[in-house]
Amino acid sequence: MCGIVGYIGGREAYPILIKGLKRLEYRGYDSAGLALIDHSESLNVYKAKGKVSDLENAVEKNDTTGNIGIAHTRWATHGEPCQANAHPHYSASETLALIHNGIIENYASLKENLQERGYEFKSNTDTEVLVQLIEYFKNTETKDLLTAVQLALREVIGAYAIAVLDKNQPNLIIAARKSSPLVVGIGEDDFFLASDATPIVEYTDKVVYLNDEEIAVLKKGEKLKVVNLYNEEITAKEQIVKLNIGQLEKGGFPHFMLKEIYDQPECIRDCMRGRINMEGTNVILSAIIDHKERLLNARRFIIVACGTSWHAALIGKHLIESFCRIPVSVEYASEFRYSDPVVSSEDVVFAISQSGETADTLAAIELAKSKGAFIYGICNAVGSSIPRATHTGSYIHVGPEIGVASTKAFTGQVTVLAILALSLAKEKQLISQNDLEIILKELLIIPDKMAALLQKNAEIANLSAIFTYATNFIYLGRGYCYPVALEGALKLKEISYIHAEGYPAAEMKHGPIALIDAEMPVVVIATQNGMYEKMLSNIQEIKARKGKVIAFVTEGDNVISQIADYCIELPETIECLDPLITSIPLQLLAYHIAACKGKNVDQPRNLAKSVTVE
Fold first, then answer.
1. Are 93 and 223 contained in the same domain?
2. Residue (of 381, 315, 331) closest to 354 by Cα position
3. What is the pLDDT of residue 323?
4. What is the per-residue pLDDT for 608?
5. How many CA atoms lie within 13 A of 330 on its CB side?
6. Do residue 260 and residue 409 come from a single domain?
7. How confident is the model at residue 71 (pLDDT cuts 50, 70, 90)?
8. N or C: which end of the chain has fewer CB within 10 A?
9. pLDDT tens digit string along 537-575?
C-alpha cells in the first residue's frame, strides 16, 4: 500500500526514481508523483493520477535533472484519487516537498490550528497537513529541517513513513517512520530510500531498516545518521539483503501471478530446506528448539492474521490441534485488536503476514505483548516489522511475491505451519516415528506433485474460458480443504471481480443451496479423504438442482468424475497435505478467468499488496 522511493548521490535521480516506482507497482496505487531538486537548486514537483507511465508522460517535456529526489505511489485514504491529492505535497512557500505512507489520525485538529495561523490547503489529504506543520516549525522555532521534522512528528498521532526535501538544503533528505516500513540503501557515495528493498537491490545489498520513531539523515558526502524524535543518536544496524533482480522479473510469463504460481515447487523446496532432512526421517525448526519450554507449556495458541494469511491460519489450526492436541483459536487481526481479548502470559500468539508489515497484525502483536503473551511470527519478508516485533518466528522463504493476489506465500505459510505442527508433536511425543516419517517423506515429494499438476495449466485455461460469463461462484470443501475453498473464492474475487463465496460443504444446505440454479457454477474440492462420501452427497444435491459442478478430484476417481459437469484430476497425497495440492488449480482457475476477462491480474483495482494502514 503506497510506495516510497528516494535517491541522493552523484547520479541522475529521475531514472532511479521512476524505475523504483515501477518496482513498487505491486503494492497497489492510484496516482504517482516525484520531487527533484535540479542543478540550479529549484524544487520541482510533478504528479499524475493513474499509473507510473502516466507520470512519465506528464513530465516528458519538463526538467527532470538533479541528483536528489523523492517519489511516491499513492493509495487513496484521505481524499479521492486525483492530481491534487497525489504526492509529493508542497509546503505553503513551496520550499519543502514531502511524501508520506500511513495515516495522520489527528490531522483534522492540526489542520484547524494551522488554518487559524493563516495556512491554506490545496488538497484533501492528511499528508499536506504534515508538510505545512513542518514548515510552521521551521519558520517559527528553527531554521533546521531535521529539528522541524522532529518537532512536527512529536505532535502527530498515527502511522507514517515520510521523506522530505528542502530547496534551501539541497544536499539533504530527511526520512522517518512509525508503523510503516522504510529502508535505507547504502551505496558507495550515495543513498537510496524505499518502502521495501525491491527498488534498492539493483544498486546495493547494504540496507538499514528504520524502527519506529527513528529518523534517517541522508546527506550527500556524509555517512548515514539515525536519530530519534529527541535527537538522540542511534547506531544504525546495517544488514545484507538477499534478493536478486531475477526474482523481480516476470521471466517470460505474461503476469507475475502466473510466474509465482509456477514458482511454487521450487519455493516449497526452499521452505523445507534445512528443516526436513533429505531422508525424511527428522524435522527441526530452530525457533521450537530455542523456545521449546515456552511453546510446549502453552495453555493455548492464538493465531492472528488477515486475508489469505487467515485462511492459512485455519489450516494451521487443524494441523496443530490434530497433531499436538493444543487448543488453537484463529482471529482476524483487525477484530482481535478491538475485541478486548482474553490473553495471558500462558498463551502463545502466532502472527502470520506475507509482507511482515500488515498494520492490523502489528497492532494485534503489540496488544498481545502488553498482556504478557509470547509472540511467534511467520513472515516472508526478511527484516520487515513483524519479525522485529516478535519474540521468535520462522520465515517462509518463498522469495518476493509481486502479484497482489497471494499464491506462493499461501502455500509457503501452510508448509511452515505443517512443519511447525510436526516439530511440536515430535517434541511432545504425540506422533510415532513411523507416522512422522510417512508425512515428512510425502512433504518432500509435494514439489514434484505440484510440478506435475502445473502440466494441467492448459486444461484449466480451457475450462476457465467457459465461465467468464458468471457473476457468482460457490466454492465448497471439507476438513483441511474448507479453508482452501475460502482461499479459492478470495482469489476469484480479487482478480476477476466475480462475486464468490466459500463454504464448508455441509453448510450448503443451511442457506447457500437457495442460490443453486442452472447458471450457478459450484467449485467442489472432492479429493479421496475421510469425507469423500459426504462430498459425493453434496454434489448430488447440487446436481438435483441443476447446478454446474466443477470438481477437483484425486487421480483415478471414477465416481464423481461421472456426475460432475467438469472434472480436473489431482495427484494423490495425505489428507493433511491436501491444501498444498488443491490450492494450485484454484489459483490457476482464478488467474485464467481474470485473464480471459482482460483484467489487470497483477494489480487488481482497489487492492494493495501490503496493507500498512488500518
1. yes
2. 381
3. 97
4. 63
5. 19
6. yes
7. very high
8. C
9. 888 888 888 889 999 999 999 899 899 999 999 999 999
Do the beta carbons of residue 452 and residue 585 sit within 8 Å? Answer: no
- CA distance linking residue 582 with residue 570, whole number of Å: 7
Q: Virtual CA dihedral for 338, 344, 346, 350, nearest 10 degrees?
A: 10
Of residues 180 and 448, which shows the higher confidence score? 448
Mean pLDDT of the chain: 92
- Out of 2, 271, 306, 481, the active site residue is 2
- Cα dihedral angle (15, 16, 18, 19), rounded to 10 degrees? 110
Residues 427 and 475 in one domain: no
Please state the rounded mean pLDDT for residues 229-234.
Answer: 95
CB contact at 8 A, 367 and 338: no
d(CA 209, CA 378): 19
Domains in the chain, number: 3
Dihedral sign (CA 354, 358, 364, 367): positive
Give the domain extent around 347: 250-455
Active site residue 2: yes
Q: Of the listed 22, 51, 408, 609, which one is catalytic?
A: 609
Which CATH number does the domain housing residue 487 bear?
3.40.50.10490
pLDDT at 240: 87
Tell me which of 188, 218, 246 is where a domain ends.
246
Residues 54 and 84 occupy one common structural domain: yes
Q: pLDDT tens digits for 310-367?
A: 999 999 999 999 999 999 999 999 999 888 899 999 999 999 998 888 889 999 999 9
Provide the 3-class DSSP secondary structure of residue 270: helix
Q: What is the rounded distance in angstroms from the CA atom of residue 511 to the CA atom of residue 515?
A: 8
pTM score: 0.77
Do 381 and 279 fall within a single domain?
A: yes
Shared domain for 361 and 371, answered yes or no, is: yes
Helix axes 408-427, 433-454, angle to 10 degrees: 170
- Residue 271 and residue 218 in one domain: no
Q: What is the spatial distance between Cα 34 and Cα 66, in angstroms, rounded to a whole number?
A: 12
Residue 29 scores a pLDDT above 90? no
